[in-house]
Amino acid sequence: MKKSLWVFVLFVGVLAALPLVFHDPFPRHLLIMVMLYATMSIGWNIIGGYTGQVSFGNAAFFGVGAYTTAVLLINYGITPWVGMLAGCVLSVGLAIIVGYPCFRLQGHYFAIATIAVGEIMLVIFTNWDYVGAAVGIYIPILEESFINFEFHSSKIPYYYIVLAMLLFAIAVSYAIEKSRLGYYLRAIKDDPDGARSLGIDIQRYKLIAFSISAVLTSICGTFYAQYVLYIHPSSTMDLMMSIQLCIIVLIGGIGKLFGPVVGAFVFIPLTELTRVYLGSEGQGIDMIIYSLLIIVLAIARPQGLWALFKKGER
Amino acid sequence: MEGVFTQTLVSGLLMGFIYALIAVGLTMIFGMMDIVNFAHGDYLMVAMYFAYWFFVLFGMDPLQSLPLVTLLLFGLGIITYYILIKPIINAPMLSQIFVTFGVLIFLRGLAQFFWKADYRMIPQTWLSGNINFFDVYIGIPQLTAAGGAILCNGLILWFLKKTRLGMALEAVSEDKEAARLMGINSDRMFALAWGIGIATVGVAGSLLTSFYYVFPEVGANFGLVAFVVVALGGFGSVAGAFIAGIIVGLVEVLGGYLIAPSLKFMFVLILYLAVVFIRPQGLMGKK
Questions:
Q1: Which of helix, strand or coil describes residue B127?
Q2: Could you tell me if residue A180 is inside a domain?
Q3: C-alpha to C-alpha distance for B232 and B285, rounded to whole angstroms
Q4: Which residues make beta-bridge pairs with A276?
Q5: Is residue A2 assigned to a domain?
Q6: Which end of chain A has the lower number of beta carbons within 10 A, N or C?
Q7: How many domains does one find in chain A?
């Protein structure tokens, strides 16, 4: 335990120091995206990994976070930090409204229901004029400051904000693993009937897990809106994005604390680098590579790449 | 106004037959081995590209290449079964979901890599124009496709209910153990189900190519519609899928007509949620 704590401290230290080594915008951008997706994937891991409920609708929370922040900022001049909180509240509300009926469904039925919910959200936002419909929303350029959550001269502040978000997500995930909640969630995943007979309120704990998952995804939506300064339905709540979260977790190691982090460090550079270096000629190459990776992993090594680092663990 | 309404109903009905045909393949595979093929719509996309390239390279009309495309897709289904599905047949559901999702992304990636995101359409097919039936204009390609879908669905039902091989297939889906005791090799039956299940989208894809654009994401919506049809009809029920296909086709156009065309897909998805919440076994499914 002591040793893995030191490895973790070293990992955080290296991450914190990397922007001092990389001065170009691109590597910094790449690392920001890695950490953003790692945070979201940790969120997915809580519902999909620990609890075993495969959600293909998590991008909806990302969209809610992004849109809530943007709408509050533009129409009421409210700082994105408050927008982030408001986004979390709405995302938790959505998680409960969606989860309440959907968690009664088993396996594939649940997975397809989450696809349906995600796609319904996408259709609504694409046709909703108040939020810019298909065109989306440009976040107004404001003076550079922490309270405005906008930094134009350098990516460094964004880098450390997303690093803080990642550490927060890891802390939340660690706390769940070590708490009673974590045991309940794993019991629900491994043996729902057994969990019920022990008096665990399955529906309630699934909703709690889904809400935590929603919060971790929603804050990423807020960050994305303020980082890219332009959001539209297909960049914030596309089905493919939800799928990518599951893929990242699967690649890294499902139900493992650092699985999503490992997955994001493999997956995001793969997609971003093929996009940059192969351009439109290489369109689809990244999809081919990671689809083969997940097929092979799902058949041969369901415990993911993380298991390579931890030999003893199964 | 009334004319437009009838027109809308007819076009929804015709599309419904094609939805039914796409869904039949999905429901067969699901009913037999409890595996949802998330890549189903993307096999349809592959079939449509095959039909398109048979036209561009050899000047074959989609109707001419239909048997070839169907045969190719049948082979693809069998290969998919032996390489990817057989190893995970008793694996946890999560592995099964990820494998078929992996196939979905793989096929879409291949299509994007080779043919880019362009929308392609066969400019001139054998079938074109409309017929006027009591002041309702019916597109000849759509009518042919619907007719083909009905015929193909009928053939599959006949195959399952009246032939020895089809009955063996049904037996495995009812009770694997009992079928094994009767000397039925369930492994071969699974492979056959994948072959036929994927071949049906070969037929559907060829028929669609006469009047529909081909692009790498074309399977996404058709695939989702197929899930809705299967859930509504009852997982595993071929006859249920046929009826549900028609209902979904009608719901889609009616929602579009009465409320807003851009929202029509939403009504289909809401229908799915309503069905799985209220009657999880679908219209004709076994509990």
A1: coil
A2: yes
A3: 9
A4: none
A5: no
A6: N
A7: 1
Phi, psi for residue A69 in degrees, rounded to 5: -60, -50
Unique residue bearing structure tokens 């209220």:
B278
pLDDT at A313: 44
Res. A309 pLDDT band, cuts 50 70 90: low
Contacts of A191 (CB under 8 A, 6+ apart): none
The answer to whether A290 contacts chain B (CB < 8 Å) is: yes
User: Given pLDDT bands bounded at 50, 70 and 90, which one contains residue B4?
Assistant: confident
- Give a yes or no: residue A114 inside a domain: yes
Tokens of B68: 């070839």
- Residue range(s) defining the domain that contains residue B51: 2-278
Contact call for B269 and A119, based on CB within 8 A: yes
> What is the interface pTM, i.e. ipTM, of the complex?
0.82
Contacts of A247 in chain B (CB under 8 A): 98, 101, 105
Q: Which two tokens stand for residue B222?
A: 């058709």
Written as six digits, the tokens of A62 are 């990302």
Report whether A131 contacts B273 (CB < 8 A): no
CB within 8 Å of chain B, chain A residues 243-272: 243, 246-247, 250, 254
Contact B21, B203 (CB under 8 A): yes
Each residue's pLDDT tens digit, B122-167:
877 777 777 777 777 788 888 888 888 888 888 888 888 888 888 8
Amino acid B224 reads: L
Task: Please report residues of A whose CB lies closer than 8 A to that of B83.
Answer: none
